[in-house]
Amino acid sequence: MTARDLPAHPLPDGLSQQEIDSEVARAQAAAEPGAHHPPRDYPPYRSSHFRHPHRSLIPVRDPEAVELSGPAFGVTDVTALDRDLTAQHAGEPLGERITVTGRVLDRAGRPVRGQLVEVWQANASGRYAHQLDQHPAPLDPNFTGFGRCLTDDDGGYSFTTVKPGAYPWRNHTNAWRPAHIHFSLFGTSFSQRLVTQMYFPGDPLLPYDPVIRSVTDQAARERLVSTYDHDLSVPEWSLGYRWDIVLDGPCATWTEEEGDA
Amino acid sequence: MSHAPTPSQTVGPFYGYALPFPGGSEVAPAGHPDTVTVHGYVLDGLGSPVPDAIVETWQPAPDGSRTGLPGSLRRDPSSGKVIGRDGVDFTGFGRTPTDAAGRWFVRTLPPGGVPYLCAAVFARGLVHHLYTRVYLPDLLDEGAEAADPLLQSLDAERRATLIATRTDPRTYRFDIRLQGDDETVFLEFS
């Protein structure tokens, strides 16, 4: 048991942005320097309070662990249209058409081939096609906002979509999520599983958002922000963003020499 | 040279129209006589059910193979709709969103070679997913328990959180407690 002195209650409802910013600063000061992932106990994101374990994770070092293998996906699991989120309805969605392209790699820099990438996002107005999203921004009948693809032999993926809008949420007063696209990724092993969010460069909301700030290390946070790549923009059609993804965790072919300490 | 990993972020509240897919919980080929059901609740630190969590499972096939097979999300190329697994291949992968009561389930075949299913839990409020294991008591005779390095590393009380309870010959209960005195054992791989 590694019980710590944990606050019994989450932060109260209705804190100001300034109050949340102080909590963000406090959490950052308490965090492990250089941590790659957010601490699961992250008070400024209030709904984390009752949803994280208090005890330490148990390290599994068994080379025979099943988690060092993982599920497979193939041509039966995706269709050619799944990567184009603008082509799922009769008409064109509203918004700024973009392509998001990148590579999925493991910690050794090797491409993750033939694996499933799933994305979902709000529409250009900042509204999800989810009935529990009651933000008073319009739904777009021509946009659902999810897509899938398999990585190619180079680990590459690509989606065509519209740039999602920012939207409010109730973590604190005047809380707004910066524009983001949710990503779900599989590696060669189940232990490499990743669900994350991609952000856009220069978004003025990034410093105010406790979700991206839950990644307490600045260099790690920057790895969640895509790059505008003019060479990926298509004349008179779409703007291009690049975002490479590195999956953490040991994979099936991981060896001592390749692992870092 | 080691590449720095992309950080995790919460799955959030609005994945419901994207990640779940029809038949996600039905890993066993329909009607297979060896099918077992594992079900339970995902519970938070107050003991309240978590209605916006996703549980994924991964396991070897009954013959012990760990390569998995494609086809968990098999699609109809003409309509794009998910048409479900083909009833022949055992993909080894399951995905279940908890329902409004916080309950999850998977119907599968017992794994070959090991006594457990691997599980990953995602939820709103959880900034980084959690791994655990569902040990099936029927596969866990004394020898298997003594040979399992993870179970052997845990005291009896903690070990018990990883072992499903058989409620009838082919049904097992496995609650996932994210926090609290009887918190589930969660794992890390490094």
TrEMBL record, chain A:
<dbReference type="InterPro" id="IPR000627">
    <property type="entry name" value="Intradiol_dOase_C"/>
</dbReference>
<dbReference type="GO" id="GO:0018578">
    <property type="term" value="F:protocatechuate 3,4-dioxygenase activity"/>
</dbReference>
<dbReference type="Pfam" id="PF00775">
    <property type="entry name" value="Dioxygenase_C"/>
</dbReference>
<keyword id="KW-0560">Oxidoreductase</keyword>
<protein>
    <submittedName>
        <fullName>Protocatechuate 3,4-dioxygenase subunit beta</fullName>
        <ecNumber>1.13.11.3</ecNumber>
    </submittedName>
</protein>
<dbReference type="InterPro" id="IPR015889">
    <property type="entry name" value="Intradiol_dOase_core"/>
</dbReference>
<dbReference type="InterPro" id="IPR012785">
    <property type="entry name" value="Protocat_dOase_b"/>
</dbReference>
<comment type="similarity">
    <text>Belongs to the intradiol ring-cleavage dioxygenase family.</text>
</comment>
<dbReference type="InterPro" id="IPR050770">
    <property type="entry name" value="Intradiol_RC_Dioxygenase"/>
</dbReference>
<dbReference type="Pfam" id="PF12391">
    <property type="entry name" value="PCDO_beta_N"/>
</dbReference>
<feature type="region of interest" description="Disordered">
    <location>
        <begin position="1"/>
        <end position="51"/>
    </location>
</feature>
<keyword id="KW-0223">Dioxygenase</keyword>
<feature type="domain" description="Intradiol ring-cleavage dioxygenases">
    <location>
        <begin position="100"/>
        <end position="128"/>
    </location>
</feature>
<dbReference type="InterPro" id="IPR024756">
    <property type="entry name" value="PCDO_beta_N"/>
</dbReference>
From TrEMBL, chain B:
<feature type="region of interest" description="Disordered">
    <location>
        <begin position="59"/>
        <end position="80"/>
    </location>
</feature>
<dbReference type="InterPro" id="IPR050770">
    <property type="entry name" value="Intradiol_RC_Dioxygenase"/>
</dbReference>
<keyword id="KW-0560">Oxidoreductase</keyword>
<dbReference type="InterPro" id="IPR012786">
    <property type="entry name" value="Protocat_dOase_a"/>
</dbReference>
<dbReference type="InterPro" id="IPR015889">
    <property type="entry name" value="Intradiol_dOase_core"/>
</dbReference>
<dbReference type="GO" id="GO:0018578">
    <property type="term" value="F:protocatechuate 3,4-dioxygenase activity"/>
</dbReference>
<protein>
    <submittedName>
        <fullName>Protocatechuate 3,4-dioxygenase subunit alpha</fullName>
        <ecNumber>1.13.11.3</ecNumber>
    </submittedName>
</protein>
